[in-house]
Amino acid sequence: MFASHVSTVDDIQEHWAALPLDHFNPLDQRTWQGHWLSNDKFYDPSKTGKSIVLVQFGGEGPMRSSVLTEKFHSYEQARELGALLLAFEHRYYGQSVPVPNLDTPNMRWLSADQALFDYAQLTTVARAELGLPEDSLFVAIGGSYSGNLSAWARERYPHIWAAAISSSAPIQPKDDFFEYGVVMADALDEVAPGCNQWIYDGIAAVDALLITATGRRQLSALFGTCTPVSTDVMDQLAFSENISDSVAGVIQYSHGSDIADLCDLVMAYPDPLSGVAAMTREINLASDDDCLPATYMALNSGLFNTTNVADAAERSWTAQTCLEAYGYWQDGTATQVTPYSRSLTVDFFHQMCLDAFEVPFNAAGIDRVAVDFGGQTGYAGTNVYFTKGTHDQWNVLGYAPAPEHESELRPWRLCAGSSHCRDLYQEQDDDVADIKLARQEQMAHLKQWLF
Asked: What parts of the chain have a pLDDT lower than 50?
């Protein structure tokens, strides 16, 4: 139906748009090319009498064309509503990096505020380029950080965004996010009692062995590290964090028997240390790898990448958490046992910010973001549907309104047994009941708000 600005592949058209580098400085007239996609397979305003546009918000990574395919639930929503599908890539990620390198001074234009203005401007671009009616209704859709953005877009620009879907969005920034590990512990024990303690004991054994030269040699051999485990504190903390991150990734994106399979793997060994070593290797080693990185620099190589803008995601997202700032640092300071080392605290992450950007962690930024958008208790947008899952570590920072902010215009559902952003994916037979219900509620509310 529409002529593509650049290329077309399987109904998906690729577009580029000139966007201001700094929306908030009228003296800076520089522009850059923002990347966006469209799929008009189901677009048919006559189906409902409305021109409806569902927009997938880009977040902290490259935008894939798959977001506009049957892999995502918005594809079915577009089919039912006769809607156009769009996807906007976030600045500083994927093909939308507006600067020649990622040196710290060049990160100043990376923020949610700038991205929200990009997305607002891209609705105008899409209207003009695709010939959309002036009264087209745009719906913001996002999950995780992009779920923050979809909710914030509706709150800040309600005249542009008619409604929003916000999945697993940690809209409350936090420095010491120890609760992340608490949710992991609860999920592990719910699925396989004793698994959390087993993993913790394995990590505690790692901590004990890190103290001595003999212990470090034992760890190097057991984990099959690329270099000997060192005495450097940052190296040791990064090594331990990598074990916890291996568990975290499985739980955060778990589906079906994933958590049970993880626990079966780690508890199949005669002792916790052997179990966590085998688990870490199984999760992290690709088929062509034969050793595990064991140093701070090797485990965070993308963080210190300032030249390869085609692979900007790790450094860009850490810049947002360090400098904007969201924090979200996941550590082992909870009072209960979690799959994290007791030695891992926010001090490690604050040092990481200083190492990467040569400026301290911006603790004041957490208060600014919370005040600017209302945080999890004071969010004031309307026509927004929120979801989060009990197996999703980020649910702790998700929408949880104070009684005076409860509203039928901000419905939300905590989905029992569900993981991160599960409702945004295409429905599967083994999805938990609450996720299936959430998808039904999303459509019901969209119809209520749009018609």
From this structure: 1-7
- Three-state DSSP at 33 gives strand
pLDDT at position 405: 81
Tokens of 142: 């996002």
pTM: 0.96
What pLDDT digit, counting tens, does each position of 128-169 carry?
A: 999 999 999 999 999 999 999 999 999 999 999 999 999 999
Angle between helices 179-191 and 258-266 (to 10 degrees): 90
Helices (H), 331-432: 346-357, 363-373, 375-378
List of residues 6+ apart from 326 with CB closer than 8 A:
170, 173, 174, 320, 365, 366, 369
Reduced to 3 states (helix: H, G, I; strand: E, B; else coil), residue 82 is coil
- Go through 351-389 and write b for each residue having 16 or more CB atoms within 10 A of its CB, e for each that does not: bbbeebbeeebbeebbeebbeebbbbeebebebbbbbbb
CB 379 within 8 A of CB 410: yes
Which residue, 169, 162, 139, is CA-closest to 382? 162
Nearest one of 6, 9, 4, 29 to 19, comparing CA atoms: 29
Which residues pair with residue 8 across a beta bridge? 13
Is residue 18 within 8 Å of 33, Cβ to Cβ?
yes
Number of CB atoms found within 10 A of residue 51's CB: 20
Say if residues 180 and 144 touch (Cβ distance below 8 Å).
no
Question: Strands 412-415 and 384-389, how do they pair?
Answer: parallel
Predicted local distance difference test score (pLDDT) of residue 1: 38
